[in-house]
Amino acid sequence: MADTTQSHSTPSGTLFKRWNPGAWGVIALILALVAIFAPDTLVETVSFTLKALAGTAPFIAFAVLAVAFLKASGAETLLARAFEGNPARMIVMAALLGGLSPFCSCEVIPFIAALLAVGAPLGAVMAFWLASPLMDPAMFAITSGTLGFDFALAKTVAAVSLGMFGGFGVMLMANTAIFANPLREAPATSSCCSSAKPFSGAPVWQFWKESDRRVTFADTARSNALFLTKWLTLAYLIEALMLRYVPADLIASFLGGTGIMPILLGALVGAPAYLNGYAAVPLIDALLAQGMSNGAAMSFVIAGGVSCIPAAIAVWALVKPRVFAAYLGFALTGAIVAGLVWQAIA
């Protein structure tokens, strides 16, 4: 679960890299602007943010400990089994494990690169790619605590379904020009995450008996606690400002209602506007309170999760542009369908 961007060697990219304040810098900047331009609301804004964090704290703690346990025990090695056997079975298993695994988008780069290098079917890889950034144990806990268990469960089902949709779509079109020779000449294999190297072999559930696994547990818990805290702090801070300054009728006019247009707009807006899966949860909570439709909320989180910068980079780094375009096409189509289904159910 890493916070990452990539920049090219251009003057503007160098300038951004030098200035990039990070999440904590943006939080400080927002608070400074509030203190200057609306000092009478500063205490209320900070209080709202801290109360929201306190309410989410049990879910953050569960998420941090669960991911640290999976890392330290080496349970992530079980993912490799999804890419063995019948192609259709591989796609189903890859979608299921992608939607349930603790990998962040950038951590899957070396894993997927190795699978592609040894000839794993692109359909199974696509299924994993599409499902992986949408849900994991930590995100399920945060989503359930803020938006409700039903929404978290529906998003999980949508993530797995989207993975299977993309995987079987690739399998059916495997012999077309779109998916012929899909890899770049020299796929990137380095991870942008700072997490420890995954353990190999069978999982060791009693990880505390080995010193290196205890270190991995502590490092993973610490890094993920900081990651979740900074992004959720920023998200709750933005939520407080949205609830105060963005008119509810404006949100309702664009993203409210029961028709297909709010769902389409949710997918189209979610794709470029997404911060990351964790920061998006409080923002969706605020938008729903201001009149956003249930279907638009679902299409927003699905389209945005797949197309956010870390997830997109993970795909772009390994495959050719036409395969990347297919990845985005599957994501947008699946997001709209998920929004329509959730709108009908909710």
UniProtKB/TrEMBL annotation:
Keywords: Cell membrane, Membrane, Transmembrane, Transmembrane helix. The chain crosses the membrane at residues 21-38, 50-70, 109-131, 152-174, 250-275, 295-319, 326-345. Its main location: membrane. It is found in: Cell membrane. It comes from the Bacteria. It is a multi-pass membrane protein. Belongs to the UPF0718 family. This is Permease. It comes from Sulfitobacter pacificus.
